[in-house]
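Quick start: what a row looks like.
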Amino acid sequence: MLEILEFEDTSSSVLNDRDFLIDLWLGRTQDPDWLSGSGSSYATIRSMAGVQLARGHHNRTFTVPDAVLVSIGELARRRLQDTGEDNVATLDAITTLGMIGDPSDIPLLEERALDTEDNWVLQKLLIALAISCDDQASTSIDRIAIARNQDLTKEFVADVRRTRMIKLGGLCATSQPGRKN
């Protein structure tokens, strides 16, 4: 959502401006001028700021304070558990939990993957598991691939597993002890 807004008097570099995104997330920036006329609600923009913060932290573009990461993860978890429908908020929650979720989120992502009827959401869930630094994610991917083999192409599953191996050898291998990135 932030990517597609037409910023007035604001450069798109705000997407990588950690402090600005934290201010949006924490509600310190209420209804910014560039938001007026965009058709987007502040809550939607705040949610996307959370996703951008999770992505920036996960990719080591910048660090995000633990308290902010915890609150982003909590909102993502609630959204994934509370919604019965698959929408943008659900997809944001899936992506966020893949990037910064706790080990306890892996079963939640797996359960949702086994239950969803939407193949796009199923694919997003598998990608979220592929980018997770948690060890349980590989086993979850295997279980989902077996259980949902009629809904997934062999090529997609191979891509997910390849992404997982690259991830484990890359960012996950250099993560700090005791932190999930």
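That is the whole record. The longest helix spans residues 42-58. Residues 1-11, 176-181 have pLDDT under 50 and may be disordered.
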